[in-house]
Hints:
This protein has about 130 residues and is mainly α. Helices cover about 60% and strands about 10% of the residues.
Amino acid sequence: xxxxxxxxxxxxxxxxxxxxxxxxHSYEEVVTFKITRxxxxxxxxxxxxxxxxxxxxxxxxxxxxxxxxxxxSQSERRELTKxxxxxxxxxxxxxxxxxxxxxxxxxxxxxxxxxxDTAVISIPDLEQTLE
Length: 131
C-alpha cells in the first residue's frame, strides 16, 4: 500500500506540464515552458537558499549590521572592551587591598600566624669562586 502511495506521489512530481505565457490582447503565445512539480520545488528551494545567503552576506559584510538593535557601533564595542578590562583590573586591586588590610589587622591584633623560614643558606666563599 505504501509503495503505491510513494509511486503515485513520485509520478505526480515527475509528470510534465506546459506553462504558457500569452499576450492578453492578442492571445499570442509569448513563452512556453515544459516543467515538472519536482523541478518547481527544487528551483524554489534553490532560490530561497540563495536569497537567505545573499541577505545574510549583505547584512554581515556591510555597515547595515550597525542598524541591527543591540549590535552597536565599532567605537562603542572598543570602548566597552576597554571598560571591561579596566573593571577587571580594578576588581583585582580591590581584592589585593582587602587582603592586605586583613593581614594588617591580623598582625596588629596578634592573630597572625608567622611561619619562620628555617632553611639554611650556604654562601660559597667569594675567593674560591673567583679562582
